[in-house]
Amino acid sequence: MAMVKVKVCGVTRVEDARAAVAAGAAAIGVNFYARSPRCVNVETAQAIIATLPASVCGVGVFVNEARARVAEIAERVGLRAVQFHGEESPSDCAGWSLKVIKALRLRDRESVSAAAQYPVDFILLDAYVEGHPGGTGRAFTWEWAAACDRSRLILAGGLTADNVADAVRAVRPLAVDVASGVERQPGIKDAELMKRFIANAQTA
Length: 204
Hints:
This protein is of the alpha/beta class. Helix content is 25%, strand content 22%. The chain has helices at 14-23, 42-50, 67-77, 164-171, 191-202, and strands at 5-8, 27-31, 57-62, 81-84, 99-106, 122-127, 153-155, 175-178, 183-185, 188-189. The strands form two sheets. The chain has an eight-stranded parallel β-barrel, surrounded by four helices. A two-stranded antiparallel ribbon has the order 9-10. α4 (164-171) runs parallel beside α5. The longest helix is centred in the last third of the chain and has 12 residues, at 191-202. The mean pLDDT is 94.
């Protein structure tokens, strides 16, 4: 079985991106949602993405953003993937030349069924928290993920170095996604936590 990949999301500093890559991250996420404590401007995102080796995917996170604005930022920053973390429709997620991740915030087991409607490369499953599109540190019931195609599943929601191995064993996703679970404070990653998280995810 292939080793699970790790996406470190909500990176706000170049040094955190470098530490994540050194620890084995396969993807780095930069957040463009203005209400997020992890939001970065285009210039900061450019610096973060520019530091990534070719083997690591730079992902931009957007919430209900205009298509033209997403395309403009993606081109300026040099993103290789976009992640839609709001109420975007299947048509909003279609027709991109980049890789596309659609995040679904799960209220219950039935919420997973929406995944089949999205013509995207990857589905990210996260916990539903009223008024917060992501990065909440809350988990959902992992068994709900069983209905999702594992070959395009990214598991998120409340993952930490202490529970990620259990999550990987329970769900067997393609990848796991972490933001708050490897932070000292919102947007400031901890290099040791990232090392532990990635090692535990990949040895599960």
